Amino acid sequence: MITSEEVTRYIQNIPPAPSVVRQALDYARAGDLPKAAKCATEDPALRHYLKILVNRPLYGFKNEVSDVSQIFSILGLSSTVQTLYNYLLSLLTPKKWELFALTDHQFYDLQASLSKRWEKILVHLNIDDKEIHSTISLIPATIIVCEALFASHKADVIQLRSVKALDFNTILKRLSGRDLFDLAGEIARTWEMNDKSINLIQAASGLQSTLTPTEKQLAQWIHLLLFYELSQGPYVSAGLNEFIDFQIDFVQDIYESFMQVIEQPCEQ
Amino acid sequence: MRAVIKGRIGVFHLQGFLDGNNAPSFLTIDDIKATEALNIDMLLVSLKKVIFFNKNGLDAFVRLLTNIRIQKHIVVGFCDYDHKKFKAINSFYGDELSFSLFKSEKIAELFVSSNKSESKTVLLYNTDQSQRSAMAIELFDYGHNPIVAQSLAEFEEKKQHLDLYYAIIEDTYLGYFGQKVATRVTGNAIIYTVSNFLDAEIGSTFNIAYHNNSLNVGFRLFIFDAYKVVSMNVHALNFFTKLSSAGAEYNATICFVGLTFEKTPKAFKNDLEDAGMLFFDSMDEILKNKELLSDLGGGGGATAKQHRSLTKTLVNELPHFIEATVSTIAMMTNAQATKSSVKIQTLTVTDSTDQVASSIGFYGDIDGLIILVFPRAIAKKACELLIGDTNVTDEDILDSLAEFVNIIGGRAKVLLSENKKRLDITLPRTYTDVKTLLEIAQDKKGVQVDLSFEGQNFIFFLTR
């Protein structure tokens, strides 16, 4: 099925961030939103993405927002960085989803929903860190990597899973020594995210044993948030609910707090 | 979502959150149709990785389970939960609980037929005495040894000695159950437990697919444990005579043990004897008499007098079976298995030390048996994707080998369907050593293909 060579080839072919986005990211990280907006305006695809994203019902704006400077100031610093990473990730989505019955719009909805809920969680945890804030953007990369690696092996996987409840992450790990979260971490590395984010993405698998208390806490919340989202009807129908193994024991002790945070009404 | 099939059990493995909004998304119409077409004895929904569920969420699955139970007379329910989830399900359904609840999949497996012959000692407790008795009877009928605690105090005391029991059965509930004839394997004999008054219902409660599978994988002795049978009518008589005649093609022996003719017409006995059925007073009369056991076909399967020879059609399909085997190995290991020789002969294993084997039968437009013999290390390597690289027991290797031949059988089925040949596969069977296998396969001519994988040889053998 999938070989280590294929995985290595995949990593080598991860495209670097386009220069306009990289520049916009640099300005946003440095806290200069007007310059970041000016850069972003130069990329029509990014402009379009931002417009579509911010006008989704999840953001709750009554009037259409289309100006990039306006969008960035609405989002704020942390969310702008996060949104730029979301855009980068959207560039990796396949032309046609084959493994998962997903549409691009559903994928963008997932990105948006993860971002909004992660924001609430970080407020609850009293964490204000742009890098940690951005990390959530790279979690859906696991879905993109999974689609890219397994789409041509769909029939094999179906046959394998008819006799054993194996998730894609475990199959990949056993065949290549690396899992989907490692590969999402590689994407983050290529896009020059810092080590804190890369480590956190990898820890979100819930399978790593050596984590600092902070890493563990954040990884637990990301893992549970991911499964909360993947349990939504459209993603269940798309086949995303079973693509990685839910580590229920890993998240059990934060479940009550998680539900309290998630069920709080959104503040606009 | 599709159920994962292990032996005679299908299990849906859900994850995350389950409520009324998302539950219907787990089951498409295709999933429901595929589930209805499964040839299984038990269908379960695992709650192991469900962190939250409510009644509306469970209801979507309960509807499917109930429909399947009514259609197929199989056991349905939920498994893999903790005490809190068990209490929640009970509070949702209360007295309307018609499905079963098994604390773990391991416990559920004790309540279905399998190709394994080990009798397991289990500790059992339930506050409801009727549940306690029902479980004990079912477990006993499936060949296990249930130790029933009569009080909570006794249970807690006995529970301390974990090493004495294969499983501790608590927080378990039998819903509509016992509709299938209980089946167990003892050595190379299959024992069916029948009870009460036998009538036309036996046709639907007896698992004919399992029986045919057992014939196909080499079982030759079938015993009906009929101590609890009061009487039978002419419909049941017809059923048994037909069963006996059908078994004759395989040279199978079918016996009744403990059947009295106080209320059953004596003429029935003559009719059954004419059909080839044998009668014994006690189980020990057969099982403890090795010579008789061997004569009847339960001594290892070596007694088949009529050898079913290879057919041209079967040999013509050989490339598909080899392709199924080689491609399964390639899929599971990313390494290629190469063919070193192909011969028509009896199964020949030159070095039988430290070898394990598995077999799977198939029937339909063509019928036969695929046997694989592996050095233990190669078996482990071939199944690494299924078992991981952690420390594994021999039982894990054998279980994975069963899953492995199941995939091969599934692939062969797909490849042959492209040639418009319909095939069904049996339950896989595994062998801890090749001695038992050789007893079953000796004198059977087949196609032996010696294959090489990572520098070591293994055998593919196709026979009838």
Describe this structure in words.
The complex is a heterodimer of chains A (268) and B (464). Chain A is mainly alpha-helical and 268 residues long. Chain A has 2 domains: 178 residues, Hypothetical protein af1432; 72 residues, no CATH class. Chain A contains 16 helices and no strands. In chain A, helix 6 runs antiparallel to helix 7 and helix 6 crosses helix 13. The radius of gyration of chain A is 18 Å and the shape is globular. The termini of chain A are far apart. Chain B has 464 residues and is of the alpha/beta class. Chain B has 3 domains: 166 residues, STAS domain (Transcription Regulator spoIIAA, 2-Layer Sandwich), CATH 3.30.750; 115 residues, 2-Layer Sandwich (Transcription Regulator spoIIAA); 152 residues, Chemotaxis protein chec, CATH 3.40.1550.10. Chain B has 19 helices and 20 strands. In chain B, strands 14, 15, 16, 17, 18, 19 and 20 form a 7-stranded antiparallel beta sheet that branches. In chain B, strands 1-2-3-4-5 form a 5-stranded mixed beta sheet. A 5-stranded mixed beta sheet of chain B has the order 9-10-11-12-13. In chain B, a hairpin with a 3-residue loop joins strand 15 and strand 16. The longest helix of chain B is centred in the C-terminal third of the chain and has 24 residues. Chains A and B meet through helix 9, helix 10, helix 13 and helix 14 of A and strand 1, strand 2, helix 1, strand 3 and helix 17 of B.
